[in-house]
Design brief:
The protein has 687 residues and is α+β, with helices and mostly antiparallel strands. It has 21 helices and 19 strands. The chain has a five-stranded antiparallel beta sheet.
Length: 687
């Protein structure tokens, strides 16, 4: 092993899946210096008088110029995210140039085209809000609803990171839409781009101490890592000061430079001219509550309380991330791992130290490897911890023991704990439109309700008086927003990214394809004899970037070609184990050939209470592949329902013909009609 490899922590015991060339700290090619020296670092070195941490290993030639991606140059030359975006927005063209396209991401927008249309490209923009904890004030929800109709495509999209997306905004309307959001208690700043994204936290509006503390912490972290240069407000509200006062603890942590974390002379004290190497994701939660997919984030923060329920500090996970590239084995999804524990007063300083470690050492030459998970995979957690501790100024305490994680959806009616109630609504793939959108608007406006978005693309109506429960339930049921017991369990946990037609990265369908996929899975369940209450966590994405977190699903479908998916198996219902790639290039029309033998054998060979993900992990892929290859069908239908739900064959055949038009079985359509009827008759009764 070479000396440089030893310095990088790459040896016989290191993870050899990714051994990537080193990056010798940050260097500006312009007038503003960027890299920050660390005092007396025990690892790495550089020519000259300052010590710079190396991400992996020292290049063979110390004076070799550091390669940087094009995006790094765009950032550096942008005057803190202004140029050339400011000029491009003033042009008559319907689109913006390459540099501006990268910079507008930091402002919360992506330039897109409708890929269903052929010929001349029809440019439009997607806007994404930033809502820490998924909190949406009443005023902002109503404004977003209006903007979707006036400037968008008439729908609102709830995301897997607790934000809104507006699609179809024309360039000429960008400033109007942006300024309206900003002036109505909203923001899009940092919703995209190479910086900290929206900070997740449990969306449930409980009055419990630990939940309130987790949400306050998430909001403080979001404020700490919000860009400070003012470019966002210069571009969209002509420099108007609409920022609210920041908590003193946040200001103190941001300005503290006692351990060499800051650029004290720059408008961006934490981000500098280059911001971060890639996107950065943080989630905060409480023990047991894994509604936020805690292990998939760059940083996962867990509140630790004493026996009286009083928060004392935080456990911190680091190194999670979903994105990967097909056929590039050195890219991979990764779960976060324990870093340590910090007292509650230190959390902002610890978060800042982790962010700065990634800022100084993450890859900036090849964006495929720029996420923090690759830095930790290359270094190992011990080396990563030691570097973070230098920026933190303290040692991390041992990780505190935690109970088993549980997935919580918060659907249905619940007590908040302060005399009010909240109602969680299942929104298929987060898409709010049509009658659902109209009814939600009416209910939220009439009762002056605040709203929260969940990490599972669902919506929570908050602060509901008990006397309002019945009329609200009736209105929601009439719009198809049913209580969870009346919804297919497959739909309750399923997720999909938007994919086609607007996402430029999509290889195949996701949001538009998943309704049919779920219907077909339910039909397979019926065919092989699984019960209606049996369920599987299914997530679908149109490309391998993993926005809907498919690598945590029991059954993940990842687009790998037109009408084709890579199948991932083995995740758990509580999202604590990575799935693994099972099959490539499975055409969408051939899914039953794979799913029937898997689900049939799960039914007949599973252990007591064994989930599908645990079953596939226990059986092993060799055995599962054999089952698929030798499958000849389950024989006579194992379904226990068939015609029994119908009084006569004529009714059955009429229902079957109607069901065929909707790509459903007669039984599925009949059960759907019955559930809807029961829900309407319930008039708000039940959970």
């Amino acid at each position: 092993m070479t000396a440089s490899a030893a310095a990088a922590g790459i040896g016989a015991g290191a993870d050899r899946r990714v051994q990537i060339r080193g990056f010798r700290g940050l260097r500006s090619s312009g007038l503003i210096p960027f890299g920050r020296p660390l005092p007396a670092l025990p690892i790495g070195s550089s020519s000259g008088s300052c010590s710079v941490i190396r991400a992996v290993s020292t290049p063979t030639k110390p004076d070799t110029a550091v390669k940087r991606s094009k995006v790094e140059l765009f950032k550096e030359q942008s005057n803190f995210l202004r140029f050339p975006l400011n000029e491009e927005l003033l042009s008559e063209a319907p689109n913006i140039n390459e540099a501006a396209t990268q910079l507008i991401k930091f402002h919360g927008s992506y330039q897109q085209t409708n890929r269903d249309e052929r010929g001349v490209k029809s440019y439009q923009f997607m806007l994404r809000t930033k809502n820490p904890c998924g909190k949406v004030p009443n005023k902002l929800y109503l404004v977003m609803d209006d903007l979707a109709d006036e400037f968008g495509i008439g729908t609102l999209r709830l995301t897997t990171r607790q934000t809104f997306q507006l699609h179809g905004i024309l360039k000429k309307d960008l400033k109007t839409v942006m300024s309206t959001i900003i002036k109505n208690m909203g923001s899009t700043l940092g919703a995209c781009g190479d910086l900290n994204r929206n900070v997740l936290a449990p969306a449930a509006p409980y009055a419990k101490k630990e939940y309130v503390f987790a949400q306050e912490t998430a909001e403080n972290i979001a404020t700490l890592l919000t860009p400070q240069s003012g470019a966002y407000y210069d571009l969209w509200v002509d420099g108007e000061n609409v920022m609210s006062a920041e908590p003193p603890d946040v200001v103190k942590a941001r300005n503290d430079n006692s351990h060499g974390t800051n650029f004290p002379d720059l408008p961006e004290p934490i981000y500098g001219t280059q911001f971060l190497p890639r996107k950065f994701k943080i989630a905060v939660t409480v023990p047991k509550d894994n509604s936020v997919d805690i292990l998939t984030n760059d940083i996962g923060v867990v509140v630790v309380s004493d026996n009286d329920g009083e928060p004392q500090g935080f456990n911190i996970y680091v190194g999670g991330g979903m994105g990967r590239t097909h056929r590039v084995e050195t890219t991979f999804p990764r779960l976060g791992e324990p870093l340590g524990y910090v007292p509650k007063a230190d959390i902002l300083f610890a978060i800042k130290a982790i962010v700065v470690t990634q800022r100084e050492n993450g890859r900036r030459d090849d964006r495929k490897y720029s996420r923090m998970k690759y830095l930790i995979s290359a270094w190992g957690i011990e080396k990563f911890r030691s570097v973070v501790e230098q920026y933190y100024g303290k040692k991390f305490e041992p990780f505190r023991e935690l109970p088993e994680w549980e997935f919580k959806s918060y659907l249905g009616w619940h007590e908040q704990g302060n005399g009010a109630m909240f109602c969680g609504l299942s929104v298929d793939n987060g898409r709010i439109g049509g009658k659902m959108k109209k009814t939600l608007r009416e209910v939220i406006e009439k009762y002056n309700l605040n709203v929260r978005i969940t990490p599972n693309q669902n919506l929570i109506l908050c602060d509901i008086r008990c006397s309002w429960r019945r009329p609200i339930s009736i209105a929601l049921a009439q719009a198809g927003l049913l209580l969870p017991r009346y919804i297919d369990r497959l739909n309750l946990t399923a997720m999909a990214c938007p994919a086609l037609p607007l996402c430029p990265l999509a290889i195949t369908e996701a949001e538009r394809g998943i309704p049919d996929i779920l219907r077909r899975v339910r039909a397979v369940f019926d065919k092989v004899g699984l019960k209606y209450n049996d369920s599987v966590v299914i997530r679908v994405t149109g490309c391998p970037n993993g926005c809907a977190r498919p690598y945590m699903a029991e059954l993940g479908l990842v687009g790998d070609g037109p009408n084709s998916y890579q199948i991932w198996l083995g995740g758990t219902p509580n999202q604590t184990r990575l799935a693994k790639s099972f099959m490539n290039k499975v055409k969408v029309q051939d899914l039953e050939k794979v799913l029937e033998p898997l689900f049939y054998n799960w039914r007949i060979e599973r252990q007591r209470h064994e989930s599908f993900g645990d079953f596939t992990a226990r059986m092993g892929f060799d055995k599962l592949e054999e089952l698929v290859e030798k499958w000849e069908g389950p024989g006579e239908s194992s379904s226990r329902f068939n015609l029994k739900i119908f009084s006569d064959r004529q009714t059955y055949e009429a229902m079957a013909n109607l069901a065929k038009l909707q790509n459903k079985t007669a039984h599925q359509l009949a059960m759907e009609v019955i559930r809807n009827y029961v829900a309407a008759q319930q008039n708000g009764k039940g959970e």
